[in-house]
Design goal:
Blueprint: H1 3-10, E1 19-27, E2 33-40, H2 46-58, E3 68-72, H3 83-93, H4 98-111, E4 118-132, E5 138-158, E6 163-166, E7 171-174, E8 179-181, E9 186-190, E10 192-194, E11 197-199, E12 202-207, H5 215-221, H6 230-244, H7 249-271, H8 275-278, H9 286-295, H10 300-313, H11 321-324, H12 327-354, E13 373-377, E14 380-384, E15 393-395, E16 398-400
Antiparallel strand pairs: 1-2, 1-4, 3-12, 4-5, 5-8, 5-9, 6-7, 9-12, 10-11, 13-14, 15-16
Helix pairs in contact: 3-4, 6-10, 7-12
């Protein structure tokens, strides 16, 4: 799923949407079902339906790779009796088979580690996916009907204590605290909406807390191979670099931001290649990691430790540059980066000014330094510098053209 895919689905969750049915189960802190319900969505009170739609939207919100992760089912879960087959049958029944829903509720209740009350909500929808023109315009013609279920697991908490008007007593006093449904902590979309099409072998998994990632729910409830959120990947990567620098905080702080800046440059360059290329993540393989470390002049021993740390920590999944970039941190680092560049320029200029006087002083680009040589031509000693016709030359600050 891409960000545009998520927006496309979210836009459908409005008053006159095509959601066919909604089902739910309210669970208390003792893991007991308090109440269940299952009804056509059109029969839900309008005020309530709008609240439900807000929850549905929230389950497809946030950033791809951080709040929304595309995860694969374990192969065993796609066999008879597996969770993938259960979700598929629930989708096919359009939420009309209560026995199947009870199996899903029981699986969530048995495996979801949450200490308080919560509400399980399940929506069923059929989306007639329109074709897209080459310029991105939606056409009237349909490509396929995307038949899916969307599940949201929402905490149900006591409202905050407060004062209010008590009509029966005609006075101001403490109001009764009510149980209120909050935004979802976890959710999932099945089948995954991949390239604007259904993929029954995957789930689009939503987590509100990107620091936690709720890996247990992904593995034990959905039977999927869990993934780290982008936040978790950045934290792990920063830990690898910090460890390589033996916890030297000054060197670490500068280098982690230099590496981040290199990552960000590559992401921005990819955006300039067009929408299609920009949508493809940049895989951070060993070759690219070595390239980034080399351009930032990381010592060989430290670079080896970083590469080893990457192999040890990212065993089951190769991170992408896109997920490892902290754009806010890069933006905040920009003034400091410019300051460091200016310091380097001042040092270079100072070195040039302070160098001793010579009758001849030659300054060439680094790649030409080893090509400069002296030759005797007709008894005279000449300094020889190989040149191409397109290269610019200046002598004592005056531009010269040699033919």
């Amino acid at each position: 799923m891409t960000g545009k895919d998520a927006i496309e689905l979210r836009k459908r969750f409005k008053k006159d949407c095509s959601i066919t049915r909604i089902a739910g189960c309210y669970v208390d802190s003792n893991k007991e079902q308090v109440v269940t319900f299952n009804e056509p969505f059109v029969s839900v009170d309008e005020t309530e339906s709008l609240k439900y739609l807000e929850i549905a939207k929230k389950t497809l919100s946030g950033s791809i790779g951080n709040n929304i992760l595309e995860i694969d089912f374990e192969s065993a879960e796609e066999q008879e009796g597996g969770i993938q087959k259960l979700l598929y049958d629930i989708k096919e029944s359009a939420l009309k088979d209560e026995e199947l829903l009870q199996k899903l509720y029981a699986r969530i209740i048995d495996n979801y580690r949450y200490p308080d009350n919560y509400l399980i909500l399940i929506f069923h929808d059929r989306y007639d996916v329109p074709k897209k023109a080459t310029d991105g315009t939606m056409l009237d013609e349909s490509e396929e009907v995307y038949d899916y279920i969307l599940c949201a697991v929402c905490p149900v908490v006591l409202s905050k204590p407060g004062l209010g008007y008590l009509p029966g007593q005609n006075r101001i006093g403490a109001v009764v605290r009510e149980r209120v449904v909050e935004v979802p902590q976890i959710g999932f979309l099945f089948p995954a909406f991949d390239d604007r099409s259904a993929d029954i072998h995957k789930v689009d998994y939503y987590v509100k807390d990107v620091k936690d990632g709720e890996a247990d729910f992904a593995e034990e409830v959905l039977g999927c191979i869990s993934r780290k959120t982008a936040f978790q990947q950045r934290s792990v990567f920063a830990g690898i670099v910090k460890s390589a620098y033996k916890n030297d905080s000054d060197k670490f702080d500068d280098m982690i931001m230099e590496i981040q800046d290199s990552f960000n440059t590559r992401v921005e360059e990819k955006k300039n290649e067009g929408e299609l290329e920009a949508s493809k993540p940049i895989v951070l393989d060993e070759r690219l990691m070595n390239e980034v470390l080399e351009e930032n002049e990381v010592d060989d021993d430290i670079a080896k430790d970083i590469i080893k740390g990457m192999k040890d920590e990212f065993v089951s999944e190769t991170p992408t540059v896109n997920d490892l970039v902290d754009t806010r941190a890069v933006k905040a680092y920009a003034p400091k980066k410019r300051e460091k560049e200016l310091v380097r320029e001042v040092i270079q200029l100072k070195a040039q000014i302070e160098q001793p006087e010579y009758d001849v002083a030659v300054r060439v680009s680094p790649e030409k330094a080893d090509l400069v040589k002296a030759e005797i031509v007709e008894t005279e000693l000449y300094l020889m510098i190989p040149m191409e016709g397109t290269e610019h030359v200046s002598v004592n600050g005056v531009e010269k053209a040699f033919e």
